[in-house]
Model the fold of this input.
Amino acid sequence: MAKVRLDKFITLCGNYTRSQAKKIIHSGKVSINDWLIKDEAVKIDEDCDIIKIDGIPAKGEKYTYIMLNKPAGVISATEDKEHKTVLDLIGDEVKKDGLFPVGRLDIDTEGLLLLTNDGNFAHNTLSPKKHVEKTYLIHAKNYVYSEESRQRFLDGIEIEGGYKCKSAKLEFIAQTDEYQILKLTISEGKFHQVKLMIKAEGGIVIYLKRLSFGEIKLDESLAAGEYRRLNDDEMNLIKKYIGE
Ligand code: URA
Done:
């Protein structure tokens, strides 16, 4: 049985902040099993109570999907003794029990990280069999882009430990005095994979940012450390991965 506070439930049902949800409850618009309830602290059972707002059943959202623009300096874990985690960045208004990051970005990597409490989604998108593409923006030192190198990424770069990576798409973006700016799309997620691929070609990654995960693109209006729930269009993309 999934028991949750009424204000938390209302917050998760719509795009309400916790204080908006409290206001809605205090104004007598919310009923539980047809009883008007004005106490936001009441616990409801998501599986069997019927909650209505203005007489319309509120759709309890079992799963939450959040897009975070991960800043450098936090780790992709749910808890850690030493470092701040990505979960520490998420406010109570969207936090659900069991929320976890879908996959891992290194502590110094920025960009798109999805968080959810939907284990099925994580399983389906992280499984190597699914070939979910991830695109990264890279600043690489000591690396010189060439057609031959691009082809080696396409053919499969061999990284430390002798692993031959799957085909990856490399794109040259720009050159500064100190480094080259590149985009790389890979369809697997080995530990430090992008850094190791660039290293195998003689370069050093000095900045790394994930721009997309499958068809979900980082909302560039989110500053590093900001997050939001996925919008309806993104949720439709998510459904492909959860078989709905
Ligand atoms: N590849 C890396 O090397 N680091 C990341 O954080 C993600 C992909």
In short: Residues 3-57 form a domain with the Structural Genomics Hypothetical 15.5 Kd Protein In mrcA-pckA Intergenic Region; Chain A fold (CATH 3.10.290.10). The chain has three domains: 3-57, 65-128+216-242, 133-213. Residues 105-106, 109, 192-195, 208 surround uracil (CB under 6 Å).
